[in-house]
Amino acid sequence: MKDRFIxxxxxxxxxxxxxxxxxxxxxxxxxxxxxxxxVQKVIYDSYFENMEKALQLMRPCCQDTGLPQFYIKAGTDxxxxxxxxxxxxxxxxxxxxxxxxxxxxxxxxxxxxxxDNTAERIPWINWxxxxxxxxxxxxxxFAGAGCSxxxxxxxxxxxxxxxxxxxxxxDAVSGPGINACPPxxxxxxxxxxxxxxxxxxxxxxxxxxxxxxNHPKGKELERQIFNGLNNLGIGAQGLPGKQxxxxxxxxxxGRHTATIAxxxxxxxYMHRRGIIQIDKNLSYQLPVYQGAVL
Length: 294
Fold this sequence. Notes:
Strand order of the largest sheet: 2-1-3-8-9
Number of strands: 9
Radius of gyration: 19 Å
Helix content: 25-40%
Strand content: 15-25%
Order of helices and strands: HHHEHEEHEHEHHEEEE
Shape: globular
Number of domains: 2
Largest sheet: 5 strands, mixed
């Protein structure tokens, strides 16, 4: 079963590297229709041609295949929970050769590329535990350099107020974010300290297109920031256009009375976020890849 689990995850990694999820493709199609400048039309045409070629050739849709990050919802009764981390590490090693993925990983103090996209605590694995479940859901994200560089987090004083969030987000998107291959997915984490705000911002970035914060005020803030960013006059590839972002998603937690923490994560238009749901028999579903078979 271990070898079967590794083989399944290797194929899933290949799928996520080559094919964008259905909800992202649908959103890009909507945005393509909204742009009317000749330059923007050419850029969107090239985006879709690139996606088609990736599928035809079964090659990654971006040359920077980043570092794999796995966000796992793990059932406590999933029978392979204790070997999942080992399986993911080996699947990444094998996928680096078979897909192929560009080797990007090195350890800080060795400064030598490991050659297989594994390193100290890489691939990155984040766990959420689901009590009483015998299933597992794995969200894979390829964290490329361009969309990682704009990431930022800051803790504000209460006297700064919630209004401090807006310029902080706008500076991240309109500054370093324009080098991250817009239009972008913008994840915003609102929490009590830097580390939990940063993690929430990444989880926000990985939400499905068309979803909203579960609080009316959070949903309204998403809408306001989304509209504001899309009124900056930034389009695809940071050139003049109507749409800087595909989506703005906010995730939040409680906070200390004396802190307002905000994290920002962005993803490029090539939003390689894959989801696989696995049951106790290693049967699987691919909710964002209609018709795909591993």
